[in-house]
Amino acid sequence: MPEREVAVTNRAVEGRIVPAGTEIMIPKDTFVTITQSLGGTFTVAVNGNLARIEGKDADALGKTVEYEDLSTSQDGSVNDDQVWAALRQVYDPEIPVNIVEMGLIYEIEVVKLDTALHEVFIKMTLTAPGCGMGPVIIDDVRARVAQLDGVSKVEVDLVFDPPWSNEMLSDEAKLELGLL
Question: What is the C-alpha separation between 144 and 90, in angstroms, rounded?
């Protein structure tokens, strides 16, 4: 996909203002500029604001979303690598870098239950404590990890100690953001 693309909504579509997180309705026949299409969601510029549109509403932009296969091991187990792969599919709506490369994930733990199911515990932060999109990003984390076969529960612990800083960005993220 081109870096930016103009689209016209072919139906009314829900969105969230970035970074406030406020829900809005974008009317049918509205010109939007798609600024980011990552992790199964879209960030669009509309009426002077950025808004995030969920992948389930891609058709309103004339788009489709293909999700990465999150198959588990052949033996049905869930491991750390699979959880990290799922988390790499979650993106900040303003920054074209996944939350792992941004350094937002501090810790993961996969616990196997007696029933062959697994619970996943994630400790993460946000770039800013007052981020209005924080609940949306946390919901994305839960949803992506819950897509793994054999995961029965995903618990996210949002922490702000240590506070996030640019030093937590991976070299890949710094390169993408022009910081290297």
Answer: 8
